[in-house]
Amino acid sequence: xxxxxxxxxxxxxxxxxxxxxxxxxxxxxxxxxxxxxxxxxxxxxxxxxxxxxxxxxxxxxxxxxxxxxxxxxxxxxxxxxxxxxxxxxxxxxxxxxxxxxxxxxxxxxxxxxxxxxxxxxxxxxxxxxxxxxxxxxxxxxxxxxxxxxxxxxxxxxxxxxxxxxxxxxxxxxxxxxxxxxxxxxxxxxxxxxxxxxxxxxxxxxxxxxxxxxxxxxxxxx
Length: 221
Prior knowledge:
By secondary structure, the chain is of the alpha/beta class. The chain has helices at about 95, 100-105, 120, 125-130, 135-145, 160-165, 170-175; strands at about 1-5, 25-30, 40-45, 50-55, 75, 80, 90, 110, 130-135, 150, 180-185, 200-205, 210-220. The strands form three sheets. Strands 1, 4, 5, 6, 8, 10, 11, 12 and 13 form a nine-stranded mixed sheet that branches. Strands 2-3 form a two-stranded antiparallel sheet. A two-stranded parallel ribbon has the order 7-9.
């Protein structure tokens, strides 16, 4: 069975920081106006809705979306953990250490913080008060395990205002150092609670030179 763990893209559906414009589907031709078909133009940020960050996002020499292999987006050994967090709280190394034995055998880590409950009912809180990984937890993961990606149910892997202050140091830990790694943000992980996850598919738009891409994310359960 397959479950979608990404959100729909649309002006009303998408939650995004104010410095980025919401996606727009612009009518180009419409049959109601006498045209022979319906066509549209899609405008949106690469960091729109459920999306993945590629290494190029924070590393000028890092891999872009098109430079990555399709296998970089398919994960055979995923793990979902619950790590409840409130406003501005960090996912710490201490939170992750109880899962150390499981972490040795996985390639993709999904962290359900529960903060996604605010995505629609309080979007500003969801964006600006978001929890995220601490630097010690990010370093713990990349230095001790063979992960190829992480996913969170909040707007980013680190709080956006914090990231602006620190130069997005958490992104650099995960995506820097020549690593083949993806970070998936703003995911709908609630649908996976209490389920056994067999595989994860993260399907980006293969845009040449892109630093990130909206994705359709699918879990096989």
